[in-house]
Structures are given as structure tokens and as C-alpha cells.
Write a structure and sequence with these properties.
The chain has about 325 residues and is α/β, with parallel strands linked by helices. The chain has eleven helices and ten strands. Helix 9 links the parallel strand 8 and strand 9. Bound molecules: ligand IDC.
């Protein structure tokens, strides 16, 4: 073999290795830049007891919920959502109170629209939460609920990052069979007139604690999940047992609201109960959404009371509960 030919072969091999490195490197950087939660997972669906991505792989939503949109609309901005995304959050919940005493107003539709726009631009999932609370029976404002979900399902039917939560926390003299289930049937039908696929989350009796009762007679439609809410200092083993029972019975569950304080949204923080909850959720890969994005003087507020910024948050701007929860987002 001639000396020249040898040299040529060495050069060729070298060039091949170099281009392979370049191509791999470029590929990697393109993929990294593209990976918003939505680009990674695409449209979510329910498969058995799990929430899965476009390829059928289990996903765990990690979210933050706004406070009532009438009270804290200033946090519905892109920089705010972006700072939570960089802390590991992939989902924003927009809490739209259904009761006029808690700020219900059609004028707030525009705040929902802003929220969906920013979450979509950031490739985050967004939960449209019809936040019944003082109006304990979802049937009380059923007409308004149908109009709310009809409006947004029509508008967002082609978006892949929308989830509908149709009744935050049924409570009082309300049962699954008599009230919640029939209400859910109607609202689901309305949403499905337009949006055929995105997940619909249904609240459960007693402030969304009784997933075990829903599990006895779940809805028949596709892509339905059920919510369980907990405040770790109030809801302890007895409520975790409800989750286990429902989950073992095959119910798909999402924790669309929780905090580590008590059910008033304030009071002492119970990290021990909180840790037990988080380990249980991680075991089943159940998604969770923290209450609430505000600097209100209450322990569930994720932002410190003395922090008046509305965006560009860093870990040091978080409250004690915020810092504790943020550690779980990173895991
Ligand atoms: C609380 C807020 C509080 C507000 C109150 C009344 O933290 O600032 O004054 O609502 O609207 C829920 C509800 C959620 C509650 C939260 C804490 O879904 O709206 O927020 N909580 O009480 N269920 C259990 C606890």
C-alpha cells in the first residue's frame, strides 16, 4: 500500500469520526432545546389507572395552581410561569371560582385565555379548574359550568396541553351518585361536543377526598381522571388509605390541589405527613399540583409574603412551604 493511500485512509477515518461527533452533538443540542414538557410528552391520555404520554409511557404532572383568578390575576404572566417551569414544574392550574361571592365573573375569561396562551408558549400543560367551593353542589352553577366548558372546549379543541377540571371540591349534602356523577355526565358531553380527546378531571365527594367512593361507580367515558386533594396537616393516613383503595381498584387519580399546611390553607406545616404523601404519589406516579401562586399571608402561599415581584422567581422568593415543595419538583 502506498504511503499516500495510507495517509488518505487515516484522514478519511478522522473526518468520519469528526462528523459523527458533530452530528451527534448537534442532534443532542437540538433535542435539548426542544424539550418543553409538551414537546416531550404530547397529548396526554388515561390508560387504566395511569396518565400516559403520546407513546403510552406513564407521566407524572408537577404543577402549581393560581389562587382565585379574581384575587391574584397579576401572577398570570409568562415570566411567573417560566420561573416555575425552570424549577421543574410542567403544569399550571387556573382556578376559576364558580361562586359570585368568590369573584365569579365572565370578565375573567380573558385571564383564563392569557393563562392558556402563556402556558402554551412555554410548552406547559394547563388545567382549567371550575373552582366550586362555597357552592358545594356542582349542580348549583351547572348552567354557568356548561357555558364555561362549552366556550373553552370549542376554543381549545385542537390544543394538546389542555385538561379540564370540572368541579374542584364538591362538599356539603352532595353525593357521588345523586349529584356529582350526573353533573359530570352533562359537562363531559358538552366538552366532548368539541374536544374529543383531552383529559377531563372530575372532583369527588367531601372536598375531593372520597376517591374510594368514585371508584365504586366510575364514569364510563374515555380519558377521565378523578381528583384527590390533600392538606398534609389535616388529611393523614385515613385519607391516604382512600387513595390506595381507589388506586388499587384501578381508578386514575390526579392530585390537582395540595399543600403541606392544614385545610384552611394556613396553619402549621406538617412535613412528616407531607413526605408520606409525596412518597405515596411517587410510588404510583400520581401527578400533583401545589396550592397556591400568591404571596398572601397564609402558609399555603408559595411566594414569601414580603416578596412583591410577580415573576422572575427564584427559590429564595419561595415561602417555607414553597421551598419544601420545590425540592420534590426537582426529583
Ligand atoms: C383558600 C385560600 C384562601 C381563601 C379561601 C376562600 O387559600 O386564601 O380565602 O380559599 O376562597 C381548598 C380550596 C381552596 C382553598 C384551600 C385552602 O380548593 O380554594 O383556598 N382549600 O383553604 N380545599 C381545601 C383547602
Amino acid at each position: 500500500m502506498s504511503k499516500h493511500f495510507k495517509k488518505y485512509r487515516v484522514c478519511l477515518a478522522f473526518a468520519c469520526i469528526l462528523s459523527a461527533i458533530l452530528i451527534l452533538g448537534m442532534g443532542k443540542s437540538t433535542v435539548q432545546a426542544a424539550k418543553t414538557p409538551l414537546q416531550k410528552w404530547g397529548r396526554l391520555s388515561v390508560s387504566g389507572a395511569n396518565i400516559v404520554d403520546k407513546n403510552g409511557k406513564k407521566v407524572q404532572l408537577k404543577g402549581v395552581s393560581t389562587h382565585g383568578l379574581a384575587w391574584y390575576p397579576q401572577y398570570v404572566n409568562k415570566s411567573c410561569f417560566q420561573s416555575f417551569r425552570s424549577m421543574g414544574v410542567n403544569t399550571i392550574r387556573l382556578a376559576f371560582y364558580s361562586d359570585p361571592g368568590s369573584g365569579y365573573s365572565k370578565d375573567l375569561y380573558s385571564v383564563v385565555e392569557k393563562g392558556v396562551k402563556y402556558a402554551s408558549e412555554l410548552g406547559m400543560y394547563v388545567i382549567l379548574d371550575w373552582h366550586i367551593l362555597n357552592d358545594g353542589n356542582p349542580k348549583i352553577h351547572q348552567k354557568e359550568a356548561l357555558s364555561f366548558f362549552g366556550h373553552f372546549a370549542k376554543k381549545y379543541k385542537n390544543k394538546k396541553n389542555i385538561l379540564y377540571e370540572i368541579c374542584n371540591e364538591p362538599n356539603g349534602d352532595v353525593t357521588w351518585e345523586r349529584d356529582i356523577r350526573p353533573y359530570a355526565e352533562k359537562v363531559i358531553k358538552k366538552i366532548r361536543t368539541y374536544d374529543k380527546h383531552n383529559i377531563i378531571i372530575v372532583g369527588t365527594p367531601t372536598w375531593s377526598q372520597d376517591v374510594d367512593i368514585a371508584a365504586q361507580k366510575p364514569l364510563k367515558q374515555k380519558n377521565i381522571a378523578y381528583s384527590l386533594h390533600f392538606y398534609a396537616a389535616t388529611h393523614t393516613d385515613w385519607n391516604r388509605q382512600k387513595l390506595v383503595a381507589a388506586r388499587e381498584a384501578g381508578l386514575p387519580i390526579l392530585v390537582t390541589e395540595f399543600s403541606v399546611c392544614d385545610a384552611s390553607g394556613s396553619g402549621a406545616i406538617d412535613k412528616t405527613s407531607g413526605r408520606t404523601w409525596m412518597n405515596l404519589l411517587n410510588k404510583y406516579k400520581i401527578g400533583y399540583v401545589a396550592w397556591n401562586i400568591s404571596n398572601k399571608y397564609e402558609t399555603s402561599a408559595l411566594i414569601r409574603p414580603d416578596c412583591t415581584k410577580t415573576g422572575k422567581f427564584q427559590t429564595r422568593d419561595l415561602s417555607e412551604s414553597g421551598k419544601w415543595i420545590a425540592k420534590w419538583w426537582k426529583k
